[in-house]
Design brief:
Shape: elongated
CATH topology of the largest domain: Helix Hairpins
Oligomer: single chain
Number of helices: 10
Radius of gyration: 41 Å
Number of domains: 2
Strand order of the largest sheet: 3-8-4-5-6-7
Structural class: alpha+beta
CATH architecture of the largest domain: Orthogonal Bundle
Mean pLDDT: 75
Strand content: 5-15%
Helix content: 55-70%
Order of helices and strands: HHHHHHHEHEHHEEEEEE
Distance between the termini: 68 Å
Largest sheet: 6 strands, antiparallel
Low-confidence stretches: 1-34, 139-143, 282-289
């Protein structure tokens, strides 16, 4: 069997050489053990099985891609519902502030009204003193209460007599009483109006709170559903990947397997060389040379420097990754609040801070932070956006050659990925 002996010898020599390289260079992947020496029948059977397995591998690869796309779509729906809940919460706080101010106005009006009441009492005391003095001097005026409560001709006559007898100081006291009463009436009216405003604002605040609570509950339920669906998708994807690996391991005989592995090595080498060339040359993509190209390179380099950093909802600022925050749902289930990392908009903040551009920590506002150009004209350094139900929920940085860098979702890390066109906005935002 000279063919099998020669093949076995070549495989052993190749394994020894690769093992030597792996020992000298730790970055090389671990070399698998040599496969068994197949018979002619095994090789012929393997060739016959190649075509069938190749078709199955292609089908499984497409299903993995579809599962990943569905996962991102569901993530977008959850983030859109969270934005609705955030808006309702802002409305609630605004309404509560209005109610607080209105109640403060009502309290101030009541205090002024109480002061006016005291003025009325003082003025009444002055007039009572005047009437008492007139009586002691022989006047027939009687008590001041008769004047105030005149209901018939006799009372009116007493009032006329009193008016004729009142001196200049008495008239002044009477005018003071009337002004004090008018002031109190006006202040009481203001107080009632302020209370009405406060009651109306309080009702609006309570309605806004109910709206916020309902929106938050819907978002949390959507997050719960999303978590279950995402876990199922990940489990399905893992099963697909295992089937794919199994199919690849079974394709062909040893000769064909070696040829495929050598082709993979050659393709991987070309890919690595191309990636290195793109990084050193600025990522390609057609952007012209000049100051803008240099600044775009700085932005891209800063984003790429964070590859592998964990996703943390609410994390990231101009100085780097920060601790995430609670969202009450999916992010909390992944412990994002205890992680140091970036969310999608936080990664953009860090990348653009390298050229002095300050961005808000919200993808919807980042979409409006620069000039919007057609998606077909996107260039390295532009931001790309995805939306669901009319809400922008994700942002990534285009780096050229159909690639982007992003912080995708809870449980993931900052990564490079091909541009996804499902759900993408029709424009790119150019800040530089």
């Amino acid at each position: 069997m000279p063919v099998r002996r020669t093949l076995s010898l070549r495989l052993v020599i190749t394994a020894v050489v690769l093992a030597s390289v792996a020992t000298a260079t730790p970055a090389v992947a671990a070399v698998p053990p040599p496969p068994p020496n197949p018979s002619d029948t095994d090789i012929d059977r393997g060739h016959a099985d190649v075509d069938a397995k190749a078709g199955e591998v292609g089908r499984l690869t497409n299903q993995v891609a579809e599962a990943e796309a569905r996962l991102m779509d569901l993530q977008g729906v959850v983030e859109a519902k969270l934005e609705d809940a955030n808006k309702a919460l802002v409305d609630l706080r605004a309404a509560e502030d209005e109610a607080t101010r209105a109640k403060a106005d009502a309290d101030a009006a009541r205090r002024e009204s109480d002061g006016a009441g005291k003025a009325v009492d003082d003025a009444r005391s002055q007039l009572d003193e005047f009437a008492a003095g007139s009586f002691k001097q022989g006047s027939t005026l009687g008590s001041f209460s008769a004047y105030l409560g005149a209901t018939g001709p006799e009372d009116l006559l007493a009032r006329e007599q009193m008016l004729n007898a009142v001196s200049g100081s008495g008239l002044e006291a009477l005018d003071g009483l009337q002004r004090a009463r008018l002031t109190k009436a006006n202040l009481d009216s203001r107080a009632r109006a302020a209370v009405d405003v406060a009651t109306k604002r309080q009702g609006e605040a309570e309605e806004a709170k109910r709206t916020a609570d309902a929106a938050t509950e819907r978002a949390r339920q959507a997050q719960h559903d999303q978590l279950a669906q995402s876990e199922q998708l990940r489990a399905t994807r893992a099963d697909y990947e295992k089937q794919l690996n199994d199919a690849q391991a079974q394709v062909g005989g040893l000769e064909d397997q070696r040829a495929r592995y050598e082709k993979w090595l050659a393709d991987k080498k070309r890919e690595d060389e191309e990636n290195a060339r793109r990084v050193s040359a600025g990522g390609g993509g057609g952007q012209s040379a000049g100051p803008a190209a240099g600044r775009a390179r700085t932005v891209i380099d800063r984003a790429l420097s964070q590859l592998g950093v964990e996703y943390a909802w609410g994390g990231g600022d101009g100085r780097g990754p920060t601790q995430g925050i609670r969202d009450g749902g999916v992010a909390d289930s992944y412990g994002d609040f205890a992680k140091i990392g970036f969310d999608c908009s936080g990664l953009m903040i860090y990348a653009f801070a390298g050229v002095g551009v300050r961005l808000p920590h919200y993808s919807g506002y980042q979409a409006e932070a620069g000039r919007q150009v057609p998606l077909s004209d996107m260039a390295p350094g532009d931001m790309l956006f995805w939306s669901s139900e009319g809400h922008i929920h994700h942002v990534a940085l285009y780096i050229g050659n159909g690639q982007m860098v992003e912080a995708p979702y809870s449980g993931s890390v900052v990564r490079i990925a091909p541009v996804r066109y499902g759900g993408i906005e029709s424009y790119a935002t150019r800040v530089l």
